[in-house]
């Protein structure tokens, strides 16, 4: 298989978590087995958080036990919101990455993980220790990296300061900048990556962009042109953040992004036939 020019992270967890009608575990496993054959670098496959908070993903442990990892190159990531979730996640052999959402918006951090930014920092420290002991890698998502709708203080210096602390104090080596509610402007995306990528060359920076169907490309192009080569998406653009004020805001539609990359001659490393099958399957899985 060709060496890709880009790391593509497919996020069925993000697509599924907000759906109220429970998707049967058998359906999830079938869908995820198909995604594993596409060749994504990483699949954000589930979460270990309170079932009361996200009932849709209460079966993540069973899903991990049942999926077929034979002969696939994709690595698996699960989201955790606290130390207990991290301890549970590392019990599962297929899991390579623990993802933690660290918000630089005080309001969103409280709403998302029921703690302050200061509390979240302490939590991140402990999760990093759990991951290291279990030989797993921590991926930190900088939530509200490009601003927030709550009036909380934000500027690029705030985002840069927290990112540098994660790298220099906790040794985090994969950081994804998240446009959580779809407020980023292409200029902000470009500026952030232009500042971070050369300043912290030991870090793999990613983009987790929540976008509208009509505004995704300028934001993605801004990240790409500034040196980002790691992108999160979800087939058909499903999911996103329920706190976005625009109902059209969802995940970056993977198939659209891949078609754009292929048209530009970028090597994706994906099996495009398997991708097409998964796109069709997504139409059956999601209501």
Tally of separate domains: 1
CATH architecture: Alpha-Beta Barrel
Helix run count: 11
Q: Beta fraction of the residues?
A: 15-25%
Order of neighbouring strands in the sheet with most strands: 8-1-2-3-4-5-6-7-9
Computed Rg: 17 Å
Written as H for each helix and E for each strand, in order along the chain, the element string is EHHEHEHEHHEHEHEHEEHH
CATH superfamily, by name, is: Aldolase class I
SSE topology sketch:
Elements: E1 7-10, H1 12-16, H2 25-36, E2 42-48, H3 60-66, E3 75-80, H4 83-89, E4 95-103, H5 106-113, H6 117-133, E5 137-143, H7 156-170, E6 174-179, H8 186-199, E7 204-211, H9 216-225, E8 230-233, E9 250-251, H10 254-263, H11 272-285
Parallel strand pairs: 1-2, 1-8, 2-3, 3-4, 4-5, 5-6, 6-7
Antiparallel strand pairs: 7-9
Helix pairs in contact: 2-11, 7-8, 8-9
């Amino acid at each position: 298989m060709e060496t890709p020019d880009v790391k593509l992270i497919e996020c069925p967890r993000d697509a599924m978590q907000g759906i109220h009608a429970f998707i049967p575990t058998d359906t999830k496993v079938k869908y995820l087995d198909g995604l594993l054959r596409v060749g994504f670098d990483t699949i954000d496959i589930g979460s270990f958080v309170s079932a009361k908070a996200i009932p849709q993903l209460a079966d993540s442990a069973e899903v991990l036990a049942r999926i077929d990892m034979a002969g696939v190159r994709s690595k698996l990531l699960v989201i955790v919101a606290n130390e207990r979730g991290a301890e549970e996640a590392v019990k599962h052999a297929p899991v390579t990455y623990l993802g933690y959402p660290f918000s630089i918006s005080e309001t969103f951090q409280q709403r998302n993980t029921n703690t302050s930014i200061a509390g979240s920092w302490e939590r991140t420290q402990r999760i990093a220790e759990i991951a290291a002991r279990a030989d797993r890698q921590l991926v930190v998502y900088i939530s509200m990296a490009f601003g927030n709708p709550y009036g909380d203080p934000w500027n690029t210096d705030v985002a840069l300061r927290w990112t540098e602390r994660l790298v220099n104090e906790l040794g985090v080596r994969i950081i994804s900048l998240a446009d959580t509610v779809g407020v980023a402007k292409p200029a902000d995306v470009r500026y952030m990556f232009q500042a971070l990528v050369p300043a912290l060359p030991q870090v793999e920076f990613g983009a987790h962009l929540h976008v509208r169907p009509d505004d995704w490309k300028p934001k993605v192009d801004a990240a790409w042109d500034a040196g980002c080569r790691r992108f999160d998406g979800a087939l058909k653009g499903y999911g996103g953040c329920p706190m976005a004020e625009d109902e059209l805001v969802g995940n970056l539609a993977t198939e659209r992004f891949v078609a754009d990359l292929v048209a530009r001659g970028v090597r994706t490393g994906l099996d495009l036939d398997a991708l097409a099958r998964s796109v069709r399957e997504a139409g059956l899985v999601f209501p």
